[in-house]
Every structure is written in structure tokens, then in C-alpha cells.
Specification:
It contains five helices and seven strands; from the N terminus they run βαβαββαβαββα. The strands form two sheets. A four-stranded parallel beta sheet has the order 2-1-3-4, covered by helices on one side. The radius of gyration is 17 Å and the shape is globular. α1 (about 10-20) crosses α3 (about 65-75). The chain has two domains: about 1-85, Rossmann fold (3-Layer(aba) Sandwich), CATH 3.40.50; about 95-150, no CATH class. The chain has helices at about 10-20, 30-35, 65-75, 110-115, 130-145; strands spanning about 1-5, 20-25, 40-45, 55-60, 95-100, 120, 125-130. The protein has about 150 residues and is α/β, with parallel strands linked by helices. About 20% of the residues are buried.
Length: about 150
């Protein structure tokens, strides 16, 4: 399953990526090309669209948390616990494990000494690790999408 968001919903798209959902931000005029394959595609538009494509979900909330709550029932069936926090929040690419010694000079020194496992985005090179920021994201996911923290 894949989600396509109107560019004005970029921050909302990051929330979907936190869930491990393949999510792109593209102008609506390109959406018809994206819906031609066999893969399930869910489209999200904002309230400013003059004529949203058939089947697109209109997100009316202004705040990103409210947008995520609005979309909860739509995306919840597609959430796979093993995929949560598995995508780059910026590029949408799937994160890959990276050897600890490869990140020594790319992360803060205290992080390198405290964390054993790292992943990186093959597209942009951004490095991820489970720290306080991931705990905050897990709390957010639990709060908005109703997934118990012990399942994350």
C-alpha cells in the first residue's frame, strides 16, 4: 500500500512515514499516473483542492496531529508494527542497517558511545538511532493511532 499526499500535507506525510507507510508528496495533476498499477494507493488532499481526484480523502484539519487523527481509520488497517520507524522521514526511502563504526564521525560523540544500532537512508544519508526522539515518536504513534507502546 502506498499513500500520495498533496504537497501542502508534507508534515502529515512524515507521520505516515513514521508508521512505515510508503508516502510521497506530489501535485494532484500527477495522481492519475500513480493509480494505474496493481498496488493499492490512497490519496490525501487538503481542503483547498478545487476538484480532488475520485476516491481521494480530504483532510480538513490544519494541525498535523489533527490531520493524523482524521486519517487514523483510513490508514490503521495498513499499519504493520514491524515497519514502524523503518522509513526516512525526509526521503521516504527504506532505512538500512549500518555498521556502528561507519557512523562514528557522523553522529554526536555521546550517541556513538551510548547507542549500538544505527540505520541510514540510502538516498539522503541521514542516520537514525533509537534515542529520546524515537521514544517521543512512539508515544505520538501510540496516542494518535492507538497502538500500545509495548507493541512498538
Amino acid at each position: 500500500m502506498r499513500c500520495i499526499c498533496h504537497p501542502s500535507l508534507r508534515r502529515f506525510a512524515r507521520y505516515l512515514r513514521m508508521l512505515g507507510i510508503d508516502t510521497a508528496c506530489l501535485p494532484e495533476e500527477t495522481w492519475t499516473q500513480m493509480a494505474t498499477g496493481t498496488e493499492k494507493v490512497i490519496f490525501f488532499t487538503n481542503g483547498s483542492s478545487v476538484s480532488p481526484p475520485e476516491g481521494a480523502y480530504r483532510i480538513t484539519a490544519l494541525r498535523v496531529r489533527d490531520q493524523a487523527r482524521e486519517a487514523r481509520r483510513i490508514v490503521h488497517p495498513y499499519i504493520c508494527r514491524e515497519q514502524i520507524l523503518s522509513r526516512c522521514l525526509d526521503c521516504n526511502d527504506t532505512l538500512l542497517p549500518v555498521a556502528r563504526n561507519e557512523v562514528e564521525h557522523k553522529v554526536p560523540e555521546h550517541v556513538f558511545h551510548e547507542i549500538d544500532t544505527f540505520t541510514s537512508c540510502p538516498s539522503c544519508g541521514k542516520i537514525y538511532w533509537r534515542g529520546t526522539h524515537s521514544a517521543a515518536m512512539e508515544s505520538l504513534i501510540s496516542d494518535i493511532f492507538g497502538i500500545p507502546p509495548e507493541d512498538l
